[in-house]
């Protein structure tokens, strides 16, 4: 979708015109790796499409080129190390600086659930956490449930998730992944004896849910190859997991499924959801051997979500409601014909979700791009909003497991306010700050400025931009600025604090978030206008935000940087092709850049779940449109900006070979002398390194890359 830019004049910059900046850092004259090219036809619908690096996908299939793949990735890592050799000491200093802001010996705010206070704590020098609880009182003796530091010993990667205590408080189920492919083994620990029960369940997602009999465990079984969540199974403790009963099998490969429990603890719920429709099944948690009943059969283009409150179910749905509405229905009549409206849909307010209490309802809404918490007393329908008072922020309901409670635990943060945990009395409206993230070494929010701006996109739509910088930072053509965005799946990128970001701000950078279409910051339509055949709005919005900042003298192309990851990495690939002249440097983290090939291969994890987001290229119209913006397919012989691309060998979301192929093709086409670096974490996946501190090494590399281009050496 090409539309006219409304600016009266557009200044076009050359990628290589800023010689004074290019001389800031003398890159070593190393020769980059050259990947072998093998013709492989991947076109369809009569279109010729040669993928000369298709062989790079061989690692997981253990094909004839699998060893060659590893050798190539290692060669790229060695090249990156050589090119960044002079920044190595600076990277180490940055790592120490960012790590030094983190309180190593720390403890979370305890959460009360079913008679116990639960919390995590961390020890100095340790990468992981200890999961603990105290019975009845915070003065009681500590009971350590899991010592993840000890559990992770000997593992380059370790992830423990899905902590789930049985109703009688005696058993703990949790999932472990030691590869970073998001395939978990579920273990059950006897909290009275400290021993593991021998019922290890694999492969599964990390989460699970207990029946109220304390011996039945429901979990999501995954496909070992595609990693799709395909079945919900029921496991009885002491039996062979191979004989677990399938209580639900999903036939639609575009749906994600999962299992949980209502906050009231009365119902087990199976959720099946795609981008455009959903379906729920319910079961009395006191009767785990029973059959699940469909709440409401899936409806075309209708999403709904449910929870239980007292004598009714609450339903959040977009049925005849673009921005969603709240409905209620009797416990024994859950079909759509019985749904009764509680909160109508509104044009200017997105109803994002609810948190249910016995006497209160917390409604999360989004208005003008900002989150609001609306409190309703269900006994008298009295309502009020929690006041926050900053121009750009993030606020959300946190862990609130107790159904019969008058206190709401919520988290508040902004670009200048560290994560702050509050307890809010929904009856008296009194709030108590329980904990604010401590920044070691001192941090004064008054030394930083946050702003909310609006850029005009080429179709006249106003795109919000949140930005932060240190007081005294001059805004002019020489000011370095990092512009970040995501723009997919309706995921909103709200303004939040980052202590690592201070290393940028304290060195004169401005940091900005472009709230582009494809997210959901401005309501559901914001998402609808950035997907499928409207996907290019995401790319144009980002470019138009950049031009707005340049025109406003916040920065210039000589000092403007762009960053995005995963689907945001697709954005980085697209803008590098569309407007390479705008950026001094681009950081593409685990980027989704080979859209057509991936969406044609249903054996790749998550492909079938994504058809409603990107389209199915087996349809000629989608194939043609995807190919028109897919970064890999649109690499041309022209100048590209400096680029740092990262990936993980075990990435289950965006396979390593997408960024690897993209970099290889860029190397053979780019006509400039700018640097192009690929860094592969050979031991991690989509989320990068595990542990509290290891990821900081990846951040330090990214910062050092930009600092090198800016001539900043300390």
Automatic annotation (TrEMBL):
Q: Do you know which Pfam families this protein is assigned to?
A: Peptidase_S9, Peptidase_S9_N
What keywords does the record list, in alphabetical order? Hydrolase, Protease, Serine protease
- Any one GO biological process: proteolysis
Recall the GO molecular function terms of this protein's record: serine-type endopeptidase activity
Q: Where is the Peptidase S9 prolyl oligopeptidase catalytic domain?
A: 497-707
The residue ranges of the Peptidase S9A N-terminal domain are: 32-436
| Alphabetical list of InterPro entries matching this protein | AB_hydrolase_fold (IPR029058), Pept_S9A_N (IPR023302), Peptidase_S9_cat (IPR001375), Peptidase_S9A (IPR002470), Serine_Peptidase_S9A (IPR051543)
Entry function:
Cleaves peptide bonds on the C-terminal side of prolyl residues within peptides that are up to approximately 30 amino acids long. Has an absolute requirement for an X-Pro bond in the trans configuration immediately preceding the Pro-Y scissible bond.
Q: Which family does it belong to?
A: Belongs to the peptidase S9A family.
Query: What protein name applies here?
Result: Proline-specific endopeptidase
Q: Which organism is it from?
A: Dyadobacter chenwenxiniae
């Amino acid at each position: 979708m090409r539309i006219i830019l409304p600016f009266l004049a557009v200044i076009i910059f050359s990628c290589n015109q800023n010689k004074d900046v290019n001389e800031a850092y003398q890159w070593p004259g190393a020769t980059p790796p050259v990947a072998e090219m093998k013709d492989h036809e991947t076109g369809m619908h009569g279109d010729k499409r040669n993928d000369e690096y298709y062989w790079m996908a061989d690692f997981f299939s253990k094909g004839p080129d699998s060893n060659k793949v590893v050798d190539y990735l290692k060669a790229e890592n060695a090249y990156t190390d050589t090119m960044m050799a002079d920044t190595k000491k600076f990277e180490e200093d940055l790592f120490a600086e960012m790590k030094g802001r983190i309180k190593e010996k720390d403890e979370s705010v305890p959460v009360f659930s079913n008679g116990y206070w639960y919390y995590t704590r961390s020890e100095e020098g340790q990468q992981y956490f200890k999961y603990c609880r105290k019975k009845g009182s915070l003065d009681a003796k500590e009971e350590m449930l899991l010592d993840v530091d000890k559990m992770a010993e000997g593992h380059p990667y370790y992830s423990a998730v899905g902590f789930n205590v049985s109703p009688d408080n005696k058993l703990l189920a949790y999932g472990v992944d030691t590869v970073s492919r998001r395939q978990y083994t579920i273990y059950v620990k006897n909290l009275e004896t400290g021993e593991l029960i021998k019922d290890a369940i694999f492969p599964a997602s990390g989460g699970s849910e207990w029946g109220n009999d304390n011996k039945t465990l429901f979990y999501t079984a995954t496909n070992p190859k595609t990693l799709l969540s395909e079945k919900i199974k029921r496991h009885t403790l002491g039996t062979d997991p191979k004989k677990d009963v399938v209580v639900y099998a999903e036939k639609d490969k575009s749906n994600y499924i999962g299992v949980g429990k209502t906050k009231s603890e009365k119902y087990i719920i199976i959720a099946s959801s795609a981008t455009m429709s959903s379906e729920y099944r319910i079961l009395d948690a006191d009767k785990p051997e029973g059959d699940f009943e469909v709440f409401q059969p899936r409806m075309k283009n209708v999403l709904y979500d449910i929870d239980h409150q007292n004598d009714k179910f609450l339903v959040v749905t977009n049925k005849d409601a673009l921005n969603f509405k709240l409905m209620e229905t009797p416990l024994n009549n859950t079909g759509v014909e019985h749904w009764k409206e509680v909160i109508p849909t509104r044009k200017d307010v997105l109803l994002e979700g609810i948190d249910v209490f016995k006497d209160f309802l917390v409604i999360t809404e989004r208005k003008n791009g900002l989150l609001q918490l609306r409190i309703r007393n269900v006994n008298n329908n009295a309502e009020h909003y929690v006041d926050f008072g900053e121009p750009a922020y993030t606020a959300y309901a946190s862990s609130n497991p107790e159904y019969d409670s008058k206190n709401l635990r919520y988290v508040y943060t902004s670009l200048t306010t560290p994560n702050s945990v509050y307890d809010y009395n929904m009856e008296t409206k009194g709030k108590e700050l329980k904990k604010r993230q401590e920044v070691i070494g001192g941090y004064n929010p008054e030394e930083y400025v946050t702003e909310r701006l609006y850029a005009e996109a080429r179709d006249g739509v106003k795109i919000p931009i949140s930005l932060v910088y240190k007081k005294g930072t001059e805004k002019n053509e020489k000011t370095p600025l990092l512009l970040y965005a995501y723009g997919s799946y309706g995921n909103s990128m709200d303004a939040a604090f980052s202590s690592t970001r201070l290393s940028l701000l304290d060195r004169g950078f401005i940091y900005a978030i472009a709230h582009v279409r494809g997210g959901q910051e401005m309501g559901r339509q914001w998402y609808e206008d950035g997907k499928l055949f409207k996907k290019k709005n995401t790319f144009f919005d980002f470019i138009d935000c950049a031009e707005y900042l340049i025109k406003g003298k916040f920065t210039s192309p000589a000092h403007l940087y762009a960053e995005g990851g995963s689907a945001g990495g697709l954005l980085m690939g697209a803008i590098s092709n569309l407007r390479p002249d705008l950026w001094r440097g681009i950081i593409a983290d685990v980027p989704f850049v080979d859209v057509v090939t991936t969406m044609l291969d249903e054996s790749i994890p998550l492909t079938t779940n994504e058809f409603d987001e990107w389209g199915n290229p087996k349809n000629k119209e989608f194939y043609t449109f995807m190919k028109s913006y897919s970064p890999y397919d649109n690499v041309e012989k022209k100048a590209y900006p400096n680029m740092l691309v990262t990936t993980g060998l075990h990435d289950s979301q965006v396979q390593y070979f997408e960024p690897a192929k993209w970099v290889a093709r860029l190397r053979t086409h780019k006509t400039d002398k700018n640097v192009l670096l690929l860094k592969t974490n050979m031991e991690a996946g989509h989320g990068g390194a595990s542990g509290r501190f290891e990821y900081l090494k990846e951040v330090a590399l990214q910062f050092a890359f930009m600092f090198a281009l800016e001539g900043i050496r300390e």
